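One-letter codes give the sequence; the fold follows as tokens. An example follows:
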Amino acid sequence: MNKKITTFECLRWALVLVAVISLVSMFNTNANTISDADPEAVAAAVMEQIDMENMLKADNQLVKRFYGLDPSSFDACILYYPTTNMMAEELLILKLSDISQQEAVRSAIEARINTQKTTFEGYGVEQYDLLTNHAVIEIRGNYVLFVVNARSAEAHKAFLDAL
């Protein structure tokens, strides 16, 4: 009887170890994969999936104002923002100069989301819903996608496919 329990426990621990190794390798591969995709091509693929009619391309000053990030510290920085401050739709694509920038960028994007949620919380129910249920942050190696849009899932897929 002890032999069966020992065999069963060994098998169980082996399966747990295989699962952990698989998860670690999956996350490490995606997080650190460097893409040499053209940032404009990546942006074009994403923009095909969402309605850009009510969005404008931002300059570097708005990137600094919205995110507190310096666009010159990245290989590429593409930001589209709504034509009116009554909307929450947004698109940010960054090509990082170094993957060590990932966490700082994630923090800046999360701060932007929180600021926008606070802005729309009391009166902009639809915009708050977009920020809560249709905001995507994807950091894949040296590329970052942040999109707030009703079609964010489609934009996210296009982003991944373009890398």
